[in-house]
Amino acid sequence: MPDFLIKILNLMKKLTAIALLSIALVSCKKETKTITKVDPQTGKTTTVEVSTDSIKSENSSVSAAPVMAINDSAGVFHQTFVLEKGKSYPLITIQKDVQTLTAPNGQSQSGTSETTDEMSFLVNGFDKGVYDITINLLGKKNTQSSGGKSVSIDTKAAEPKEEQFKMMWKVNKALVGNTLNMKMDSKGNVKSITGFEPIYGKISASVNALVKDAKDKEEFVKSFKASFNEKVLKEQFTKNLVLFPAKGVKVGESWSEHENATPDGKVKLTTTYVFKGVQNGVAEIAVSGGIPKKSDKQTQQQMTRTMSSELAQNGKILLDQSSGWIKNQTMHVKTSQTETLSDGKQTQTMKSVSNSTVTVNP
């Protein structure tokens, strides 16, 4: 079965635009007040003198208008991040997979797995157009259910008694409770992520009692580093933070992204986005797409093997207009695979169907 790479999105937005100040002009001499605003994109400051009488009498027109992360200019919407210093922004991801296997005799068997990753992003400051953010790794939970039995591996619960699950719990436990530091500009481009080495040390120590062979331990730590490092996370965040095209997008407009679903690039995953608009401070994006049905047929020693597979996805993303942060995301992905073996006289067919739901900030 092809290793479909489903990147469900995304996550986070940007910041732009300075509030407009209107000044009431009068002929007589009045006391004035200087107001200073910071351009969220450049970090530069601008000062404007306004009449104090105007502030009192027409406060709504003189005060700075709210700076919106998702803003409209002549009907074209753009994205930025407007994050508040000292505030933590949640990022909780829950993925539930239900897989059903159907044997040639028609009997089916199902299994369910659910993974929860919890983190938060604390904004320490904003300087010269770049945010300083602390990423807090808060918790991980894995649950597997099959045949009426269920096993949970939760960093917020006690270590499981089953030997085969202890290593996963120890590794997850060593991972959570740590922090990383991220530098990100107002457009969602991640400049750097640091703080990995202390985490690597804890991961290595966590498997000491369970992995006796030095070579096996070295391979495990090496594998962990390959999947959890600055390059991997930087590419992931940078790619998924910004959903709107750089040129902006109008209400009802759609755009698509294409990525390789197989290493050779022969199979492509297409994701199509449609901007539904902004209502009550929430921007909505509809998501659809997938991989068209693909078939492969091979014959060896009078035995013909036919494989077919396809993927379909749909869902929506809700973004906070004022901050650009993700309020909620729900994606549904269905993957189907059929394998048929035939010798010309008899035919056997096996089917596999996987239904996945990814929820962000439920």
Question: Can you walk me through this structure?
Answer:
The protein has helices spanning 52-57, 59-62, 163-175, 196-206, 214-227, 230-241; strands at 32-38, 45-51, 70-73, 76-79, 88-102, 108-127, 130-146, 149-154, 179-185, 190-194, 254-260, 268-279, 282-300, 303-320, 326-342, 347-360. It contains 6 helices and 16 strands. The protein is globular. Helix 3 (163-175) packs antiparallel against helix 4. By secondary structure, the chain is of the alpha+beta class. Strand 9 and strand 10 (190-194) form a beta hairpin. The longest helix is centred in the middle third of the chain and has 14 residues, at 214-227. Helices cover 17% and strands 49% of the residues. The strands form 3 sheets. Strands 5, 6, 7, 8, 9, 10, 11, 12, 13, 14, 15 and 16 form a 12-stranded antiparallel sheet that branches. Strands 1-2 form a two-stranded antiparallel ribbon. A two-stranded antiparallel ribbon has the order 3-4.
